[in-house]
Amino acid sequence: MSEGIPGEPSERFLRACQRLPVDRTPVWFMRQAGRYMAEYRELRQKHSLLEICKQPELAAQVTLQPIERLGVDAAILFADILLPLIPMGAQLEFVEGRGPVIANPVRSKADLTRLRPVNVEAQLDYVMEALRIVRPMLPDGVALIGFAGAPFTVGSYLIEGGPTRKFERTKSLMYSDPQSWHALMERLAGTLSDYLVAQIEAGAQAVQIFDSWVGALGPADYVEYVQPYSKFIFERVRQTGVPAIHFGTGTSTLLPLMHEAGGEVMGVDWRIPLDRAWELVGADVGLQGNLDPTALLAPRPVLQRQVKRVLREAGGRLGHIFNLGHGILPSTPVEHVQWAVELVQNSTEHGQELGT
Amino acid sequence: MSEGIPGEPSERFLRACQRLPVDRTPVWFMRQAGRYMAEYRELRQKHSLLEICKQPELAAQVTLQPIERLGVDAAILFADILLPLIPMGAQLEFVEGRGPVIANPVRSKADLTRLRPVNVEAQLDYVMEALRIVRPMLPDGVALIGFAGAPFTVGSYLIEGGPTRKFERTKSLMYSDPQSWHALMERLAGTLSDYLVAQIEAGAQAVQIFDSWVGALGPADYVEYVQPYSKFIFERVRQTGVPAIHFGTGTSTLLPLMHEAGGEVMGVDWRIPLDRAWELVGADVGLQGNLDPTALLAPRPVLQRQVKRVLREAGGRLGHIFNLGHGILPSTPVEHVQWAVELVQNSTEHGQELGT
């Protein structure tokens, strides 16, 4: 690890974000803090998801759990991409077995006018406070990641009122009332970028923007209805000097357009091999991913084979950050996640060649 | 339309399947018979979905409804991809608002041994009978399509016991008990190919194989766990001389591999523009698609723009069959579907150039 060069970070995760040489591939996992961990489940018996998010000490505690258990290279703040909707006026609840539910979804111009402006510093201070608590508690070499949802993905929850497979109401608003659609995207882009900048000021050393569901769109719709708003957010983050990861699932055909919108690192899922993703975005971009989270449910030899495939497809390129293609599943055994971390650590140390 | 050449079909849909010149682009829609139609909803007040499927006269009646209302170029038999699971022993029900539910899913070697062998001619004769009724009732020039699910997609329902977003149990079986996985795929490939051949003998002039959810996999898993079984099916269909359409959603990175498995025509969704899909599979393959079904909910000018984009991306190539990227949504207004048909008919007549 080439430490001490002025202006260069020493944390291997941050070095990879800048495509600087690293002693081994950095690794962390989306939803690395969560229900698959006994210590998290124990806390959830006493507190709801929203309670944990809103109490900075608890959020900080949960954020640190996987750092201790897994030895990953980055901590991601424990929070939810829908938190910024609460001060906007959304009645958000997390319903067991169903996920987030919004009792008063936005489906018309009239609904839109009821959305309130947000002062993120004041109204989401609990998130910033959690970051301020976590940052000095992190072990040396571990970086702190902040995050927000992207306007399309956050907007789709607000419109649908919950998880969806078809994005029927989202696309209907987009196609049938483009004026309201664009107004909503603009509003979300403003609030979400304020939120990211505030997180960076509170200590986040990198941010990830989750456009998890944008793969529901084709390229032309992405360009017309989504890209300008994502671009706005990445531009504001870029001005802070902190690296941004741009993540989505099922984005094979959108990847060059998403990269155009912004991000020093693109996060991709297992549907696109990393070598192919690099062909699409160019070698001057970092890539994060892309193990299938269900591979973490598999027996050790199968998991090992899948991890090695990801590393082989990454081919030791500068700017690879090992991660999943989506979040850790609640049914995942913790040991399997530990195996994956060890395997990445042992297979990529000193840039050693990877067998097939 | 070049009729009368020996060995060449006269129906424009079948001509397009063979990449023969057509007077205009053929058009039909997945789920063109269904809940968005008043005449179907009326019938459903008296009969369940399974009752309609199992009574050949009713299935035939529903199959013909969109032919009368829309003037499409092909009729697809009204049935469900999960019907072949019933004689295998699956307790299949369609639950309002949830979709298909299988009370006794297959999740282990023991479950697998309880699956019964199927005599499709005897046990699914109601499907063949419906085809025999429909075929002579079709107007001149309208072709009859039979269909089946592909082993992965049908298998995923059988394993999950219903619709899923994550395919957690499916992939778990695949990774953790590959022997049972391969045994299940083999069993399904046998039954599903028997079923397709029987449909062809009963009058289906083309077949579509729905691997609707295979886009949940990455390319390496597709090759290892799925492709051999899909290949087996397409090989058996190929021997009948009837064209096959190979359909899936979210398949951008799988498309060349799916094409390798088989299909004279590849069915793709709106996530991949047709010109790009053609680059991936080569010009000697037909393509079917790929309007976003939610575009049929949009006002006329937006719908028109989206239909024209699909036609522009198809670029008047031989072998384009206009369709959606997935099934018609129940909330779709019938007039919108009619607009789309008229637009395709009027925009592509005599191969006229398409404006932007």
Condensed summary:
Chain A contains 16 helices and 9 strands. The first copy, chain A, has 356 residues and is α/β, with parallel strands linked by helices.
Structural summary, described in words:
The structure is a homodimer of 356-residue chains. Chain A has 356 residues and is of the alpha/beta class. Chain A has a single domain (12-351), classed as Alpha-Beta Barrel (TIM Barrel), CATH 3.20.20. Chain A has 16 helices and nine strands. In chain A, helix 4 packs across helix 8 (125-134). Chain A starts with 11 loop residues before the first helix and ends in an 8-residue tail after the last helix. The relative contact order of chain A is 0.13. Residues 352-356 of chain A have low confidence and may be disordered. Chains A and B meet through helix 10, helix 12 and helix 15 of A and helix 10 and helix 12 of B.
